[in-house]
Amino acid sequence: MNNFIYGERLRALRKERGLSQEEVALRAEITPSYYGQLERGTANPTVSMLEKICAVMGFSISDIFIESNTNIFNIDTLSMQILHQLHGKSDREKELVLSMIKTAFKLQSENK
Predict the structure, then answer these.
(1) What is the pTM of this model?
(2) Distance (Å, whole) CA 95 – CA 93
């Protein structure tokens, strides 16, 4: 697999999670410039560096090399960001967020 393809995959997966290049770089303890080079395919990371970047974004290194669309349910970007924020939270926390969303929509419909 060439650099351009893995860079494109990194970019797509990062955007699905609603993260900036700077956020990923800081979490992975690398410079934003270097991370940008990875996405553009102008730098060659080690496997351990790719694993570190994947870990901070919450996906597996194998996800970089899967060429199929990772968004198999055709979920829009904003909804993917919401799902990413819920990832790893307890059922109780998820139920609380769902309740808040329902309340917000109810209030919005009452105010129309």
Answers:
(1) 0.59
(2) 5
Name the helix (H) or strand (E) containing 39. helix 32-40
Per-residue pLDDT of the chain (112 residues), as tens digits, is: 444 478 888 998 899 888 999 999 999 999 999 999 999 989 989 989 999 999 999 888 887 876 544 455 566 767 777 877 787 889 999 999 999 999 999 999 888 7
Residues 6+ apart with CB under 8 A from 24: 14, 35, 53, 56, 57
Look up tokens 């609603």; give the residue.
18
Is residue 74 helix, strand or coil? coil
CB 71 within 8 A of CB 13: no
Residues in the chain: 112
- Of 61, 90, 95, 75, residue with least CA distance to 16: 75
